[in-house]
């Protein structure tokens, strides 16, 4: 009885803490927006001859471009392939044989679950009409008002609104799937489903609105002006930092540090990493939302940073361990993809080499530190995505250049040190929301239905205990 009361007290405290955090962030957001509005100079225009007010220039109606539409739909399919089969194979090969199917199932079923959630309410919360600079309204629930034959000029002026919606759906899908790498091999499947749905609704959707939504307090559409071209804060910091919270709350796997937990199928993992690299061109170049010069630039720097990061990780590991590993090269490539994501629409090829080199080294060091700190992030979701996303977001504040994208901003190395400060604010906000929000959701799920499988089920493996199947006969 005392234990139950203690658990209820803890959960209530966590809920209160979460509400307080949300209130603080809301106050900060509204304060920032109010200050921005106060400091902005009033718009003026020269009076027309005779003192009459100037006539407003007619705004041409938005027109759908078939080439841009084809590119955004193709990019949506590429990003879908990043989750299944890409991430499913990448994560599935890194776990032990007895958990291979269960891990692949995480990525596959998230594609199903979040695709439905996004249509019903996720897109509306993320990109719908702004509510207090914190979240979108529910006016677009069930895609009400999201046209299939008309664009939304706030987000993409040349493609149908539903095309932009489904492109963003694939971002939500893979972000939720990335978190699963931190708790692989030990979470109950039923709890996994509930947690994933809650996390998408209360962590991902608000953060997407903060950074990318019209009126969100962090981004460029009426907010602070922090840059995130394709998801450094929204996708990678949120998933990586949430993964860290999952690893801490669930605890270590049975036998961690004592038993051999090496990947059971490295060829599968490398194939998955290669699929991620392939699909990431839709992730980054597709975020230009048009088939043109900016998409080309994002494509080039994505490939360059990825290749550099794989080499940097390989060399760092070679120096530290005496031999390079295939897993290290594949992990380095993913780290490079992560780090270039927020900067891909704002930096040139030489800057992307510096970003990729930093990603390879920093993420490798983060994975080394994990074993010394003793937490069990099963598949290095935090070391690769949390650290890689943080480095990429800050590096955007260093290397961004308006010569690459006139709609962006210059970074520190191009004469604008203030941009680095804006990137830092975005990073801190994403860290706080992801960690605190995830911690609270995990505790609620644990209190109501339990998070971990039993010791017996964990020893048998999730394939049999959760699905009554084997990956290999």
Write up this protein.
- There is one protein chain.
- This protein is an all-alpha fold and 473 residues long.
- The chain has a single domain (61-467), classed as Ammonium transporter AmtB like domains (Ammonium transporter fold, Orthogonal Bundle).
- Helices cover 65% and strands 1% of the residues.
- The chain has 14 helices and 2 strands; from the N terminus they run H-H-H-E-E-H-H-H-H-H-H-H-H-H-H-H.
- The chain has helices at 2-39, 66-94, 100-127, 161-179, 189-212, 232-250, 266-284, 293-321, 326-340, 349-373, 381-399, 418-449, 455-460, 462-467, and strands at residues 130-131, 135-136.
- The chain has a two-stranded antiparallel sheet with strand order 1-2.
- A hairpin with a 3-residue loop joins strand 1 (130-131) and strand 2.
- Helix 6 packs antiparallel against helix 11 (381-399).
- The longest helix is centred in the first third of the chain and has 38 residues, at 2-39.
Short descriptors:
Ammonium transporter fold, 65% helix, disordered N terminus, single chain, two-stranded antiparallel sheet, 2 strands, 473 residues, mainly alpha
Count all strands and give the number: 2
CATH topology description: Ammonium transporter fold
Rg computed from alpha carbons, rounded to a whole number of angstroms: 23 Å
Strands of the biggest beta sheet: in what spatial order? 1-2
Mean pLDDT comes to: 90
For the termini, the CA-CA separation is 46 Å
Structural class: mainly alpha
Order of helices and strands: HHHEEHHHHHHHHHHH
Quote the beta fraction. under 5%
> For the record, what is the CATH homologous superfamily label?
Ammonium transporter AmtB like domains
Low-confidence runs (pLDDT<50, min 5 residues)?
A: 1-54
Coarse shape: globular
